[in-house]
Request: fold
Amino acid sequence: MRMTFVVNGLSRTLDAPPLARLLDILRGPLGLTGTKEGCGEGECGSCTVLLDGVPVNACLVVAGQCDGRKILTVEGLASKDALSDLQEAFVKEGGAQCGICTPGVLMAAHALLAANPQPGEGEIRESIAGNICRCTGYQRIVESIRNAAKEQATREPG
Amino acid sequence: MALVGRSVPRADGPAKVTGTARYVDDLTRPGVLLGATLRSPVARGRLRGIRRDPSFDWTGVTVVTAEDVPVNVVALIEEDQPVLASDDIRHAYEPIALVAAEDPVRLARALRALTPEIDPLPPILTIADALGRKTQIHGPDNIFATYRISKGDAAKAIAESAVRLTGTYRTHHQEQLYIEPQGMLAFWDARGAHLVGSLQCPFYVHKGVMRTFSLDDAHVDVTQAVTGGGFGGKEEYPTLLALHALLLAKKSGRPVKMIYDRQEDIEATTKRHPCEVTISSGCDREGNLSAVSVRIVMDGGAYVTLTPVVLSRGALHAAGAYRWEHVAIEAIAVATNTPPNGAFRGFGAPQTIWAIERHMDRIARELSADPLALREKNLLRVGDTTPTGQFLKESVGVQRCVEEARKASGWDRKRAALGPAAVARPVSAILRRPAPGGSASRKARGIGASVFLHGAGFTGSGERKLKGRVAIDMFRILKEKKPRFTIRTASTDIGQGTETVFRQIAAEALWVSMDRVDFATPSTATVPDSGPTVASRTVMIVGSILESAARDLFARIEQNRQDHGGSFDDAALRLIARDGTIVSEKTYETPADLVWDDATYRGDAYPVFGWGCDIAEVEVDLDTFETTVIGFWVAQDVGKAINPVLCKGQIEGGTLQAIGWALNEKMVIQDGKILNARMTNYVVPTSLDAPRFTTILVEDPYSKGPGGGAKGIGEAPMDGGAPAIAAAIEHATGIVRDDLPLLPEDLFAAGRTGP
Reply:
């Protein structure tokens, strides 16, 4: 099946079986290996990407469903010369340790801050509840997201 | 510039947050094949053969069996484990054959076209059956290893004590559940065998490959890819996976990549040893401890792997952080027909610390004493001796840990407000108990504590035998005005932050900025053997070798500056112009005053100990028996925190693994097979299960630690979490659990039978 996605702002057209997992399309033909596979059954959240702005597990979404839609992956978060506030905060505050869950956590957090720029701790924890991290105990991740929200607020008044 | 003690951002952070860090599954090579493993469906049996479906088109498929293995042993402590089973099947999921093909669909079909023909035999599945010698599966007695530690006369002292108590405490399997499954990429060329993989210990894999393929060390190159967590699970296991991938690569003549899926990873790889500990103690009515006798039995699984070392560490921690005049410890590891158990953060200590801490609560219950006050009264101090006769010379920060945790958690106020532990009562009474304060929720609160220690570095004479090495190179990039430095070590960063902390240590010792110090990718072809990335030894031991190598280099540059003038950089560039790249390599020097006797288990078991106190506050739902951790306080004596943010990250992450072990994680095994080998049903804590941690770094420096006194910190956080949670549940409900885990059904069952 011929399909077209807008991936990280770029339009990409390719031929793929409609039932191929979005995860395999991203990591294979599109060469975007930043999205990780941890379980293949939608439990760990490592493969979280945004489909039209909504977090999904790329291991549970089939390519055919994405035709004509917008996909954002971890490779699309930084601008040409700077990390995003979230990425910066994760580096500084210890939000990333081994880093394998990090892309998925960042995507979930990105969707949260887009919808709710000043979330409380409970909302932050809820937003990443589908992302398993075995390294951090989550506290540094929560701090990272909270600091990114603060940073964003100081930069974009109102 | 004071780099040490500062939370500099992690060096590998930018690559990890942009998705450019390359893990093994992100790597490929031209012509790469995918590999898979045929495994035993039964726990024990005789392998008669492997049937290949003649109707399957085998073109382009490579099959490897035991006959293809040059030397069919996995070189670890012993050589009892085959790379591929040839006749005896000793555990479910034991590898029998390997398959490689170009695409995953062909690979899966080829795997299904192979059928192992096995005559099943009755397996040994429990510690009791192994000890009862129901069947002989290892040696004459099914015993892998035995250790004994003795000080004074424990039996006599217990008999003479006013308060004598005995209890048995059990712990269960735990899966490491690193989020990146095991994976390895292998290929051969004129220079021999090459491996790139997800691993903790490049030189363990190196040794195993040399042995199985009879290669010398120059013909084996093992490189660590960015590794998505290990927790011990990628200590010894990757050797087996590397051998498998190399066998397929050799026979097919192509590169081979093997990546486990989650189910295979949980089923086939090592787990934490289940353990049974029986403790008898004697003390007076005031709670002054006198004597303890401990018997430990661990389930090693089907092969020896690292079991003796795990058992030894368990035994050395079994008396806890307390002063006992008389100690007798006996530790045994048995063989069973279950997948081999192996390294997991804590390495035997969480099991025995669980036991001694639950036993301390038993004593407190008997004496109606405050559990924290009882512990405080008996804490080890500088000048005391441990069960092996180790004289504690320095860096015993446990008293401060208890004080800090007690204060931060509001222990005294909360214990006073909540009252003494709820009286143990049958579950029927709990179910009838009215809600506290007349609220409708019927939830009970409690607060509990644990105190723990963790020996940092290898046990006994381990470091003396190993002689870990680290190098730091100084070189000049063309036309640059300043020298650059590269750290070469086999210590891997698997998330803990080795790359960052090592740069801090080296840059500080050299008086240069961190951006001039690189960290070489650990590859056995280019880095010296610093020993494995295990045993809370990376910063404390390997970091101290690095610090010493960097100081030597600094002294050489400084001497040149004094001799010939100019700046530090001038002097460094002069040295490089004269001699080329300057290499400063150092070997670990075990402190001369450390003495250990392997035969008697007497002496300095560890160079130094880390110490800690955990306090947990929980709320237990009296209808569902679900436990919510509403507060958690950790105070840990780390000697010196080189990077406080990374240090706290280790402590919080390790503590949550301990909480998960207690409240969420339960491996269900039937007939030697794992029934919940998926993330859907082997449940680890999420962000909503995790409490907010209050993490307090206590710094009681170790005189030989780098950066002004750093000690090992990686494993200690795994030791105290579970017993603190159990104590809090007991305080809240009166349900006394001596066995892990503490899932709602376990609390319900315990409440039904009573303590």
Q: What stands out?
A: Chain B has four domains: 24-121+183-268, 127-174+271-349, 391-455+606-753, 462-587.
